[in-house]
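Quiz preparation item.
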């Protein structure tokens, strides 16, 4: 018997698959049903580690399984190739972003190929190639034509020393990552995609996505954040303010118009138009606004910061009572970008308003009586009541429920022309401008007379110039005079190219359509081909993309449908979504506190030491494999030692796919031993498969039953994304096969059948080993092209029956017996049953009547 040698076998089978073209999706419709399985395409950051391989292994199991089930499977791969790390590499290591990216792609492609993934490499795309981003530019122009693109001012993080825009992740504690200078907010003209046009559709569409994790749907729903409420206008108390500010009063957005009688102040964002107008003349207000701008601007930072405000010395009137004046403040917890950037404070019903009121001594009037509370004694101390209840202290709203009072208040506002029902969304339009080089150029030319002019389609792509330098901060496109200066396509006057590039999330918003049809040169994809493959039946990726990427892609498919580029009425790109857990590994730190890779650490007599220094190592938490903590196991190293199948089997074992799985040397050893054990079971087989199974022994029959049950169970486990249970079932099956000793030729045939089924069941998981087994068993062709096995229903039938036991006509117990058990066996089992024995106490058994497989009747007296 030989050992199985993956180093020899794996490359050999990979070239067999490539030669036979088994991994290609049909280029034209076939009579087989289609199945599109996709893993989120990788960013070419360097090398793949074992952690990354889990997501591809899962997709590959599905792809290979569905292919065996008779589907025409599309399983493509490509590269999300634009992005900041390439530019950082250029700055730090003086390599061109393109060269850095292409080199990484080459390395990673090689690694994915070594994993033996059933991928259709003919469809490979890299988003940084002009033959991809050319189409993206055309899509951008289509969206522009359709009114789905807008140019408007937006704030950016500006580094005043480096004179450049910074991405959020380049701002560390409010300072520029390179210069260390405090970052300021600047307004720049930027490009937006109007995703908010689809807010309702994106929210309502979530209901259909019944093969998505609930938590992802919930996260998307929260992100879209539809709130129903009202716009309410508080007129200025001093009519002169109408002229001063150019409006009738201050309009707020509220979800709780039922609490209007609890209002005690209005608060404006620190950069609300009125705050800004007042700041011009009042240095204190000006300072307050600047302080707010300097502190964090994310919703989360604002939420955490202590409440702060300034009285603007403006008064407004209550919409339901012209004699009731309210002060207007500016407050740091009011976001300028949400609702109208203004609120009315109703401190008894809102915690932030309450904290603010306590700090600045503003009145707190409870207006919602919680269920079961007593109006005479209920009061608000330091916790607002934000739940529903019965309205009181509220004149005409008194006695109404929260819900009814909201309706009633809106009615009254409409009557007085001071407000109306309104829906507000947390979702903002998608700012796609990036002031960076390594991205898809925005195909627009700015002309002094014609404005922003689209680049004519026949001039696409607007290619990124290669000759750029990264020695100065900022976007090298801004400095590239030769590229920037062009003539206006409309009037022919000298004009300038847009130097912003598109957010890389744009590239990943439609790549799955290009995969379905990567050949056309004159359009992003062939509509019929894209339609044939869409939607993606199974998408696999990380939960970190639960919101942005998945929402943007859902927006894109809707927008492309509305632009007539594809007919996809549901608008949904991904019918099924699976978010996989991570591979984790212990972390190690040297005495000097630097992270150490597992390969830099060695176990010496139970003590972990740093190989280089011989000094002890501190073992830290088990965390997801990541470069930053160095706790990664390189995939090439792993494959060199154990083979690709072992990596695939390991990452799918032990832990449900949605949970994390820990990488341990012990676990890997176990997999290696299992691979060898499985091979030896197959290699040690002495019969021939396909022989006559008539006359099989009881043990042989039991083996066949185990085999067919395993076929059923593994099939169900794959269908249900429970790969770890499939692995466990295969383990049990291999154990049964190891114990089995054939008693005759029929048994050998049964053994052969079981080994063939085993081979087929492991083939989606360990495809190379499966081919070796298939060949060893003398089967025709390759297992990658074989149909998935069906369990024989006759062998799945349960072969025990339950018999009722009666004593003197009364049911006293039940016994479980093999089907067809004889009278003696049934009689003995019935008399041994504890319940029956109890009821026979003190009696003599006179007669036992057995109806085989049905009932045992005992007559006693
Ligand atoms: C008065 C009120 C009384 C409110 C009450 C709540 C409770 P969601 O549900 O998230 O949409 N709000 C409105 N615009 C705001 C802004 N720009 N910055 C900060 N807060 C803002 O929240 C809507 C509620 O958040 C609104 O309803 C408003 O406060 C506040 F007992 O109005 B409410
Ligand atoms: Zn012009």
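Solution:
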């Amino acid at each position: 018997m030989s050992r199985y040698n993956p180093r020899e076998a794996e490359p050999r089978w990979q070239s067999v698959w490539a030669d036979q073209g088994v991994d290609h999706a049909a280029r034209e419709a076939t009579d087989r049903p289609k199945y599109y399985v996709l893993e989120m395409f990788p960013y070419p950051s360097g090398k793949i580690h074992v952690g990354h391989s889990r997501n591809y292994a899962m997709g590959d199991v599905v792809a290979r399984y569905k292919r065996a089930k008779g589907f025409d499977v599309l399983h493509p791969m490509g590269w999300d190739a634009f992005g900041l790390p390439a530019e950082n590499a250029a700055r730090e290591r003086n390599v061109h972003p393109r060269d850095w990216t292409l080199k990484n792609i080459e390395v990673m492609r090689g690694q994915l190929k070594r994993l033996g993934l059933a991928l259709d490499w003919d469809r490979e795309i890299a988003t940084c190639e002009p033959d991809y981003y050319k189409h993206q530019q055309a899509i951008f122009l289509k969206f522009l034509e359709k009114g789905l693109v807008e140019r408007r001012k937006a704030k950016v993080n500006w580094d005043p020393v480096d004179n450049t825009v910074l991405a959020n992740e380049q701002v560390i504690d409010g300072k520029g990552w390179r210069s260390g200078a405090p970052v300021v907010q600047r307004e720049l003209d930027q490009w937006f995609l109007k995703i908010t046009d689809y807010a309702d559709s994106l929210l309502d569409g979530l209901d259909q996505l019944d093969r998505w994790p609930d938590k992802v749907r919930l996260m998307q729903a929260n992100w879209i954040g539809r709130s129903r409420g009202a716009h309410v206008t508080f007129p200025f108390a001093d009519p002169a303010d109408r002229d001063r500010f150019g409006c009738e009063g201050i309009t707020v957005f509220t979800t709780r118009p039922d609490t209007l009688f609890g209002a005690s102040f209005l608060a404006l964002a620190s950069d609300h138009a009125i705050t800004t107008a007042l700041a011009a003349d009042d240095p204190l207000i000006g300072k307050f606004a600047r302080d707010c701008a300097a502190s964090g601007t994310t919703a989360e930072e604002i939420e955490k910061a202590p409440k702060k405000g300034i009285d603007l010395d403006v008064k407004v009137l209550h919409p339901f009572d012209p004699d009731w004046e309210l002060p207007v403040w500016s407050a740091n917890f009011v976001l300028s970008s949400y609702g109208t950037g203004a609120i009315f404070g109703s401190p008894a019903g809102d915690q932030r308003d309450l904290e603010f009121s306590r700090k600045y001594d503003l009145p707190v009037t409870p207006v919602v009586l919680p269920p079961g509370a007593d109006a005479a004694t209920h009061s608000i101390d330091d916790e607002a009541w934000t739940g529903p209840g019965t309205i009181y202290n509220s004149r005409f709203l008194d006695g109404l429920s929260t819900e009814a009072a909201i309706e009633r208040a809106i009615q009254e506002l409409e009557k007085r022309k001071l407000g109306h029902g309104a829906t507000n969304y947390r979702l903002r339009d998608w700012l796609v401008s990036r002031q960076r080089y390594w991205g898809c150029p925005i195909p627009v030319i700015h002309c002094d007379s014609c404005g922003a002019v689209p680049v004519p389609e026949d001039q696409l792509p607007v290619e990124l110039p290669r000759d750029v330098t990264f020695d100065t901060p900022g976007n090298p496109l801004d400095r590239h005079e030769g590229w920037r200066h062009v003539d206006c396509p409309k009037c022919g006057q000298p004009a300038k190219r847009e130097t912003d590039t598109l957010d890389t999330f744009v590239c990943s918003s439609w790549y799955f359509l290009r995969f379905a049809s990567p050949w056309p040169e004159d359009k992003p994809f062939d509509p019929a081909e894209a339609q044939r493959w869409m939607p993606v039946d199974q998408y696999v990726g990380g939960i970190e993309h639960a919101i942005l990427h998945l929402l943007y892609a859902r927006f894109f498919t809707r927008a492309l449908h509305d632009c007539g580029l594809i007919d996809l009425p549901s608008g949904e790109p991904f019918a099924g979504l699976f978010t996989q857990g991570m591979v984790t590994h212990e972390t190690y730190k040297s005495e000097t506190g630097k992270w150490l890779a597992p390969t830099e650490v060695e176990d010496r007599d139970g003590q972990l030491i740093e190989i280089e220094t011989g000094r002890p190592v501190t073992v830290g938490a088990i965390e997801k494999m990541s470069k930053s903590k160095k706790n990664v196991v390189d995939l090439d190293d792993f494959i060199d030692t154990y083979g690709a199948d072992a990596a695939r089997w390991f990452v799918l074992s032990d832990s449900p796919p949605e949970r994390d799985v820990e990488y341990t040397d012990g676990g890997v050893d176990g997999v290696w031993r299992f691979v060898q054990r499985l091979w030896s079971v197959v290699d040690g087989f002495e019969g021939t498969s396909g022989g006559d199974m008539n006359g099989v022994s009881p043990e042989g029959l039991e083996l066949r039953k185990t085999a067919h049950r395993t076929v059923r169970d593994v099939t169900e486990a794959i269908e249900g994304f429970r790969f770890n249970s499939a692995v466990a079932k295969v383990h049990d099956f291999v154990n049964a096969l190891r114990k089995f000793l054939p008693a005759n030729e029929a048994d050998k045939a049964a053994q052969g059948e079981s080994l063939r089924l085993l081979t087929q069941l492991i083939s989606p998981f360990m495809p190379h080993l499966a081919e070796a087994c298939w060949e060893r068993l003398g089967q025709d062709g390759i297992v990658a092209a074989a149909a998935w096995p069906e369990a024989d229903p006759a062998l799945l039938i349960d072969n025990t029956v339950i018999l009722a036991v009666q004593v003197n006509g009364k049911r006293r117990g039940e016994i479980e017996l093999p089907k067809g058990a004889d009278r003696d066996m049934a009689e003995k089992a019935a008399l041994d049953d504890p319940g029956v024995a109890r009821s026979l106490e003190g009696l003599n058994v006179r007669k036992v009547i057995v109806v085989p497989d049905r009932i045992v009747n005992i007559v006693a007296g």
